[in-house]
Predict the structure.
Amino acid sequence: MILPPKPPARPDKVSLWRYVKLFRQDILSAQPAKLYRAWMAEFRTPFFRSFMVNDPTLVDLVLKERPDDFPKSSRVSEGLRPLLGESVFLTNGETWKRQRRIIDPAFEGGRLRDTFPAMWAASQACVARLEEGIIEIEEVTSHAAADVIFRTLFSIPIENEIAAEVFNEFRDYQRSQPIVNIAAFLPLPRWMPRFFRRRTRETAKSVRNLIARLTQARADEIAAGTAPDDLATKIMTTADPETGERFTPEEMVDQVAIFFLAGHETSASALAWTLYLLALYPEWQERLAQESAALNKCDFKVMSELKLSRDVFREALRLYPPVPMMVREAGCPHTFRGREVKTGSQIVLSPWHLHRHERIWARPDAFEPERWQTEEGRRCAREAYMPFSAGSRVCTGAGFAMVEGPLILSMLLKMFRFELVEGRVPQPVAHLTVRAKDGIWLKVSKR
């Protein structure tokens, strides 16, 4: 049986500085193989102690039962602040709760149905742009996911001048941003410079300036009563039900930046790996191509007919979760599996390891979309599946992503066939998301 590619594991014991070097190159291959079986692992540095937890009961404790005891760690977020500022992705406590009270209504109820035509249009545009030949598929999915974000947030296609500039500048930011900033390993005071690369600072500033132009233009349209009823309008006109306050222009830039990062980066990663898996397992690709015949008109009801596409996409998210690790911080003392967890300890939650845990999943490294229709698969989904995090901090756009992914996938497979390219096996690495070291190259041909 052919297994999908998986990063090599490092030796069990390495020095701290060797680990930091490996970590900066790729989070995944910096970890030892035993983490795929361990319920918990402790890691000590001269400055802090961290615990990786794979025990589902501990994961639930951190994310669902006592989330206020385990706020997001500032260590990993340090590197993202030039772009994201005080966005909902980075904040904690009352600030975060206020932000979610304003943002969540935009994604509730019938909003998915309302945004479906924009997703459909972006999917059609992706099909129209795709050409036959040997293609680096991450470029294709990045473009498509960015287009979805601009159409659903601001009712503009990616061909819009400012949208295209944001997309291009953001790609520059990805290339200049290291996986972790030095503050992830050293306890630096807030006033001390973070030593960001000059290009990182410049591109972050450029992206934020472009987003500020989009949000100001929308604010003017709202004031004039001419704004479209899209996600940006909904968020900018929603008041916090407790305080009556709305987002300031600066806060709105922060939120749009994270919507673009989370909604574009993660979807692009998931879609690219899904297409690779379907090239690796062509029998599944043909089944999805047959299913895609249901896509005959822009109607949200069609999503109920894309059951195989949904299961394949879920399995791709299991094998290649876009966000491979999350870090929380112990806000008070706890005891995990008989070990003392002191205040300030870092708690690492790893969807990458949890989704492939050898004591939880049957054949964890195998691509088996049919597992989602079994009782065992449903149990694992409840206990050990969190591509969008879980609990109160679950990704706001999780439902959004589970419509966007299968829809774009089915639209592409209805028109095109994807095949492997000899000698081009993608190596998963973790940058801002799980991507392929040298891209994912596939042969594309029309059906």
